[in-house]
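Render Regucalcin in 3D.
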Amino acid sequence: MTMSSINIECVLPENCRCGESPVWEEASNSLLFVDIPAKKVCRWDSLSKQVHRMTVDAPVSSVALRQLGGYVATIGTKFCALNWEDQSVTVLATVEKDKKNNRFNDGKVDPAGRYFAGTMAEETAPAVLERHQGSLYSLFPDHHVEKYFDQVDISNGLDWSLDHKIFYYIDSLSYSVDAFDYDLQTGKISNRRSVYKLEKEEQIPDGMCIDAEGKLWVACYNGGRVIHLDPQTDNWPGGQRNSSQSLCRISDRLFLLEETLKTTKKFWS
């Protein structure tokens, strides 16, 4: 696939303050996403073209599908279950009770149904914040939470290789896409290394997803750019620049928000 073959179209001029976490829900032909500072979870019906919104009580940074129906989301420093029908929120677990200035950021469900999400300090300006305050966690199906590491600046993009043996992760201010060996059965990660180092002019790496060929797509914050890279070769096939501040659709099932790019249909158990 070449950059010239990619068609980008705006499907929803939502004008999010900070749009994140696009997740396709096939059962309803809908796209879920969040607007972090607006404290809204949004669902766009691709058939009716209508957007329905659910307002919560704290910044909501990611949303995922739940196997039994409904959704899970990271709200403030809490993992929560969402009931869309009655607009209710149930807290499943809370992290970092001692860090009042922290919140979750990007999150995604792994192929075994664990909900991975990381934290960060609140920004005072774009990418300006107290550093090394965040950590990476996962919520297991039995509701217990595991902490993987701390000293994170802005926990961001995450995804898994097609064979589920590698976990890819971005801490934005490191300007690096990192890889870990991944044990799908236990959820353990090990052997951290950088597979792609961004130059400062490429701007700040943010959301990320993997495609059907095992290549990574990384959205760059404050740069209006999406880069497409091969994590096995450290090769950058090219980049697609897009300055839109609204929701876009790329190809068949690849959705781009202002700062986040990912495709997922994984379910939290």
